[in-house]
Amino acid sequence: MHREFHVTRTAISNPGVKRGREGVTVSKATSREAAWDSPGAECLCAVSKAECFVHSNSLRNLSQTPPARPLWPARETEKHCTEHSLRCTRETQLNASAKSSVIRSVRLTLLPLQEVPSNTFRDLHNVATIEISQSDSIRIFRARAFHSLHSLSELLIRNIRNLESIEKGAFSDLPKLKHLSICNTGLRQFPDLSAISSLEPFFYLEVGDNIEIDTIPPNAFQGMTEEETYMDLVRNGFKDVQRYAFNGTKMSKLILKGNKNLRKIHDEAFEGAAGPSLLDVSLTALRSLPALGLQQVTVLTARSTKGLKTLPPLESLLNLQEAHLTYPSHCCAFHTWRRKQRENAFLGSFGNLSRLCSSSAPQEFGYPSASGGLYPDYALYDLDFQYLNLELCVSDAPIRCTPEPDAFNPCEDLLGYAYLRAATWAIAVSAVLGNLAVLAVLLTSRHKLTVSRFLMCNLAFADLCMGVYLLLIAAVDQHSRRQYYNHATDWQTGGGCGAAGFLTVFASELSVYTLAVVTLERWHTITHALRRDRKLRLRHVAALMAGGWGFSLLAALLPVLGVSSYGKVSICLPMDIETPAAQAYVVGVLLLNAAAFLAVCVCYGRIYASVRNPHLATRRSDAKMAKRMAVLIFTDFLCMAPISFFAISAALRMPLITVSHSKILLILFYPINALCNPFLYTIFTRAFRQELRLLLRRCGGCGAPRRLPRLLGQGPRHTGPCRKPSSLRFYAYHIKMQGCILNKGPK
Fold this sequence. Notes:
Elements: E1 3-7, E2 23-26, E3 33-38, E4 41-47, E5 52-56, E6 86-88, E7 103-109, E8 115-116, E9 129-133, E10 140-141, E11 146-147, E12 154-160, E13 165-166, E14 171-172, E15 179-185, E16 202-208, E17 215-216, E18 228-232, E19 240-241, E20 250-255, E21 264-265, E22 278-280, E23 299-301, E24 322-324, H1 337-350, H2 353-356, E25 400-402, H3 418-444, H4 451-479, H5 484-493, H6 495-527, H7 538-557, H8 580-611, H9 620-651, H10 659-669, H11 672-683, H12 686-698, H13 708-711, H14 731-737
Parallel strand pairs: 1-2, 1-7, 7-9, 8-10, 9-12, 10-13, 11-14, 12-15, 15-16, 16-18, 17-19, 18-20, 19-21, 20-22, 22-23, 23-24, 24-25
Antiparallel strand pairs: 3-4, 4-5, 5-6
Helix pairs in contact: 3-4, 3-10, 3-11, 3-12, 4-6, 4-7, 4-11, 6-7, 6-8, 8-9, 9-10
């Protein structure tokens, strides 16, 4: 009958009989002595400050030969211990000196040992399992503590929080060891495993919850075993894995899950190792995976690894079949990569692989035929001829990858289409240059700041912000072209996308608000032209614009504060409507823009009514100017109409177009105002050309180019103010509507 010895420190109030199916438990009793029995054995356990030993006549059956000199002598009480004793010191250390084929398992729990000396278990030649656990006092395992235990297959060291060191060579010559567990200890260095020399065909190494171990050193596992190994290295304090750490191993699985401080695995960490086929780095702080040594990985798991925003070169994952990642964009990398690899490998010799593998392809290939002669179809075997490898035509099974890309983040570049990329650059550069020119002229003018100048400055600044947003989007698209999946997470979750989103929402809302104020101001000026007491002063308009700036800043800031989000889509617009607050925010902003459009419609309706009033002696040029300005405003809002329509439908969870198609609207229509406004409102006016000419005159070395007025389309030379209106009724009307908004006004 096999026997298993359990030695614990469990206090019992009534010492009595304890039985087990396979062994006997020795407990430290609250009384001085506790008697227990088992079939065929009468043992006495005496515990005091000076001694602890177990003695029984029946232990003769456990060992037929006297043990060697005990490594843990009973000191002054050694005379009480016979050759058949299990001895321990006053700290209840145990020396299992019995040597028998019936002892297969030894479990030591809750014993206050100070150390485990060398050759502790040397006489247990047939023991298969040793477990030392739940001790609060063991601090060190000496060298050769587990030496030459040729039958040992399982060694468990667990829940010893004060264990600080395992000396080099503590595990040595263990040819049958197949499971080593070192968990929840206070070790400060990775244990030395180089002398284990296991010959088992499969080895399971478990090193977990050792929060003081901060690195895996080079050659940490070399000499442990040459056979297949499953390494479960979870929830440790690892900060990095050094080069050649896994040298000399043959790994089937490597689990690094839960090492929250693990930030780096050196590129050469897997040099000299075979495998692993499964790599799990979930719940770590890794920022990148090694570029070398992952060729044999078939399953990659990196769930909840927020810092891993880029993948290694896909060529380093040649055999990958399954990936469980953190970000959906990473799965885009595997969609067409394997097919492209085959095409690139074959392209130099045969051209288009898709055409070669089509149904009509076979007739184009074969052996070269002899020309003429009696056997026209005889094949010429040319040693230099390259033949099609038909395996290239076999479709590989797609790589299973989770989480899959969603509708908001399709597998494409940031801007998606080539023509959209070109249009973005053109619009962005034109908008930035045009609005910078407007601001430069208006802010450097020596003329008095009027209401119109003030409004144009606000409009130009808003449109300039929109141009900067487009430049930022275009630059990121150029940088991440064809590899956006590797930049998507870093871009959309970083500060860059947040800044871009803030700029575009602020610019859009400020531009819409300013256009509405411009229209209201012109309507008020025309309607109350004869009422000087009703004239809008600069301080009135400044107060209105202060409110517009406050509203625009608040609208742009809310997604940053968590109401909706700029990181939902690649172009950094607040499309997140997952929460009721986010949905209300998006719908509210769109409805306010629609309300501004309706206000403009009403105001221009009133302006038309005034212009077409038969009782007013309205000049033809005045009517033409009013119509021109109306066309400008309506053009601006008509550009936004499709965006508002599709955006509101999407906000109400009834999307009518995909995100890929919406980029066309958002890039070509959404920022078109930023491009058109500076030209239509300012640059194309006669007053602006006059201001620009005066500015160039003041520039040192610039002179006053005589051809500038002609180049800018200016007609006859005219440096004075526009002609005065014929009546007081049309005084303000002429100032506001006939392109003279940049002059000082009549003298």
